[in-house]
Amino acid sequence: MKRFIFIALALCISASCLAGPRTRRRSLSSSATPASETMWVDIAAYFRLDGTALDEIQNIRGTWPAEVVETNDAVVGTAASFNGTAASYITTETLSLTHNESNFTMSAWVRPTNYTANAGIFYQYRSSSFQNGFYITDTNVISVAGCVPADPQPIPCLLNEWQHIAVTYDAGNVVNYYHNGTWVSSYASVRAEWQDINSYQLGRMSTAVTTFQGQIDEAAIWLRTLSSHDVYRLYSEELIYVKPADPTPAEVWSGLVAYYALDGNAYDAVSETTGNWLSGVTETNDVPFVAAGTAAYCDGSALGSVETVNSALLHGESNYTITAWVKVSTFTAYDAIVYSYGARVNGLSLYAGPSDLHAGVGWSTGNVSHMADTPTALTGNWTHIAMTAENTKGYRVTRVYANGEQLGFTIATGTSTVLQDAVFKVGHSDYSSARSLIGAADEVGIWNRKLSPAEIALIYSEQLTY
């Protein structure tokens, strides 16, 4: 019994059970826990806030303005420091897969330096009925959104001290909130449901003009209701998410159904058959990287395309991925890059502008499309582009990537399988002769599964070829 009491006391002390200010104590490696750790099951977004608004889970980058400063005053690594001016807040990209979720958790480390009413800390707002997160309401109080009416027992807000805030929501519309690992209160909300249609913000509540003053670090969202034990561990052990190891090239090629190196021919290295290299396509030595060999230059005509062999590569599939390298010479409009046009459309094209990517997804119940502005205009620059499509949790989700980073996504209600009855064409869409690429394409891959953000980033960064 004495031994048990001693061990429990030691654990309590090491877990910071004793009251007192939190100060920066750890490097990133000392508190990092691997992605395989049970704590990170169903993690949907993680913002380290080490000088960037990157979501470590989806590999999608938000906006970090000049008014937000990276600071060494952090729980671990560095943190984001907000000065309370109108532009001092971070806007993240919207999340997918959290749409209409009732079971989820939000957490963050915060260090307020001033009390500012209605200053958002970690917040998402769509309407008065759809808002989630936490914010400062008045002196010494942090309130939780999603609670109507006001919180019965708000979270204490301590100035100039690092503190951990967590809020959990469950399907019974019960909201629990925690301060420094300790349960504060619970409340039956009218509606607690994560809405990913709008972006969410760090340092600002979108309905208010005031912004947060202080520091924020290690903000996270889970698609499950964390237990009180999990929340306590986040605080006491200062747990930090670490991305899993990069996939291997062998893992990347799993599920590949077609690959066209476009080295002067229409050879598919997967099926070991040859498609059609039409007369409007010429072989070019202008390639994205040396190992790519040569590329296909499409002249913008109806014959300026390379046709795949199989007219039903993805027919009946629920998930798929298309990747390619592309360099546009002259933008016209709706320029097809890799496209299948039949009963439904599938593939990637330029749309409305030389840096707008349009992903068409040919589900049998209709099309889902997305436009996203690439970080670098495709005109005159070799760019690695990718799209993924998947059925998940009752939704059809389409994502678009450029140079290894996700640009955005779109969601449509319902699930279905792909209806494809036409071959893919590199450089042309049969919708009209005007929808043709003037430029070069190379290393086209098609998978019958959704590649992960890490796999797409690896293809780009390591310049992988099959």
Short key terms for the protein model shown above:
2 domains, 35 strands, 466 residues, Jelly Rolls, mainly beta, 8-stranded antiparallel β-sheet, disordered N terminus
Task: Give the mean pLDDT.
Answer: 82
CATH topology of the largest domain: Jelly Rolls
CATH architecture of the largest domain: Sandwich
Q: What's the total number of strands?
A: 35
- Separation, N- and C-terminal Cα atoms: 62 Å
Poorly predicted ranges:
1-30
Please state the overall shape, judged from the principal axes of the Cα atoms. Answer: elongated
Structural class: mainly beta
**Largest sheet properties:** 8 strands, antiparallel
CATH class of the largest domain: Mainly Beta
**Share in β-strands:** 35-45%
Rg (CA only): 25 Å
The overall number of domains is 2
Q: Percentage of helical residues?
A: under 10%
Helix tally equals: 5
Describe what is shown at a glance.
With 466 residues, this protein is mostly beta strands. The protein has five helices and 35 strands. The strands form seven sheets. Strands 2, 5, 6, 8, 13, 14, 15 and 17 form an eight-stranded antiparallel beta sheet that branches. Strands 19, 23, 24, 26, 31, 32, 33 and 35 form an eight-stranded antiparallel beta sheet that branches.
